[in-house]
Amino acid sequence: MHPKTQQILKTLEEINKIPRCSKHEERLSLWLKEWAVSTDLEVKTDAVNNILIKVPATSGYESSPVIVLQGHMDMVCEKTKSSKHDFSRDPIRCIYDGDWIKGDGTSIGADNGIALAIGLVLAEAGKNGDIVHPPLELLFTVDEETGLTGAKGLEKGFIEGRILLNLDSEDEGVFVIGCAGGKNSRITLPLEWENFEYGKGCRFGLFKLMVEGLEGGHSGTEIIKQRANALQLFARVFSGLQEQVGKEYIRLAFLSGGSIHNAIPNFTDAFVALDREKFEEAEKLISEFGKTFRSEYAKTDHELALSFREVEHGVVFESSGGDVSRKEVPANMVFSSRTEEKLVALLLGLPHGVYRMSDRIPGLVETSNNLASVRTWETEIKILLSQRSSVMSRLAEISKKVEAVAKLAGAEVEHDAGYPAWEPDIESVLLSKCRQVYLQTFGKDPEISVVHAGLECGVIGSKYEGMDMISFGPTIKDPHSPAERVFIPSIEKVWILLEKLLKSYC
After folding, report:
1. pLDDT tens figures, 91-146
2. Confidence of residue 321 (pLDDT cuts 50, 70, 90)
3. DSSP character at residue 199
4. I need a labelling partner for 241 at 20 to 30 A (CA). Which of 258, 291, 440, 441 fits?
5. pLDDT in tens, 300-316
6. What angle do CA 394, 449, 219 make, to 5 degrees?
7. Rounded Cα distance, 28 and 289, in Å
């Protein structure tokens, strides 16, 4: 293993000792500032807590252009249902498995902790005389994963450089030169309750229906794989139960599923009141649905599972961004028939997955929607969705479609401001230099790509005129999921590329 790869992994392990779910990067920000001061480097923060560390040029490179190395501090905090990991306090355990490093039932935060680690090791290498480089600015932003908040909050003059290397791509050997724009939508469906007798001594019991074992994953880069959506699978099962068992024998009492806007939902917990005499019929039907789903998603979600059992009390633990909340199903209450009908119709009718493929770039998803999460509150049901597109008019189209379906169900919709697409520049000077260095170093041409994901480059480019940008990084598989892992040999290649690219600016 390359000695710098070892140092980068050791630095990632140190970063992973610090909680840093989106919107909770305070301790990491402080740690980075302390690191910069201890390394005798200039550091500053802005109003939203972005960090900028300035690294002076090595000898002979003082007149070279300033290069910005950029990544984000936050991570998507996802774990398996069996994991007891608390993202608000527990260090993330890094497990080495051959050529891969992964978490212990959790996302490992390589997206984008690996960028921070590379940047810090690069700064130390230059200071120690191990490499040469132009003046560097290490720009580490906050809250990229839940809305690009840090990039949006950047102020004029915060950075000097106009050459930006974004280290937030996930396939080594691929140079990303464009990305999709996006926005989130929040649907609020009024929740009406009805009194309903169930429990001990009653004809009806409380049952928990779970959809679990799905792959989930990044709602941008993984959406083309057409993995199962746990929320829509639940809607199919519950609708089938209503039709086969009878609406009068089964009622919905609580629903929670999915986590954050940019993760495909990989689980759903539902509580239903069911006539106990109908249990065997319902159980058989659910088993048949399970077989059907495993057949439909045999290549994408082979661990998919449905479970159905009676419980005494309904309790669900919901986690998002490191926060965990405990909710109890109201005793002897169910959704009204009208609410139930509207909710199931919404989950079945809302678009999810690839909406349109690009007719300009073969194999690129142009437009998509992620039906991300559902939460039950006291007086309303909240549904979170995320739309993406590299064509802004198509982004407006898919957002309007979401809004139209919601309004047909009598729900209210709010869209956030979103973020712009990063339009590719095939004539970029930086791209030309990167391609040349990669070819000379590895003996082959890199792949040039536009991705169906939101990168901070789109926002940063809209804020700083004349910014020449590219995005690359080591290979990361299944980001935004407990299966997230990093291919260790790819880290060495990224390091070597950076070393020679920076040297070329003399």
Report:
1. 999 999 999 999 999 999 999 999 999 999 999 999 999 999 999 999 999 999 88
2. low
3. S
4. 258
5. 999 999 999 999 888 88
6. 55
7. 45
- How many other C-beta atoms are found inside a 10 Å radius of the C-beta of residue 190? 14
pTM here?
0.76
Give dist(CA 190, CA 17) in Å, integer: 41
Query: Distance of CA 205 to CAs 179, 197, 312, 436, 457, Å?
Result: 50, 9, 8, 68, 53
Whether 144 sits among the annotated catalytic residues: the reply is yes
Residue 104 tokens, joined: 């212990």
Largest CA distance in the chain: 84
Domains of the chain: 3-179+421-503 (3.40.630.10), 182-415 (3.30.70.360)
Selecting among 111, 124, 137, 144, the annotated active-site residue is: 144
Query: Hey, what's the torsion of the CAs at 168, 174, 176, 182, to 10 degrees?
Result: -70
pLDDT of 453 higher than 90 = no
Burial group, residue 372, by CB count within 10 angstroms (0-12, 13-18, 19+): buried
Q: What is the pLDDT of residue 260?
A: 87
Active-site choice (74, 78, 168, 171): 74
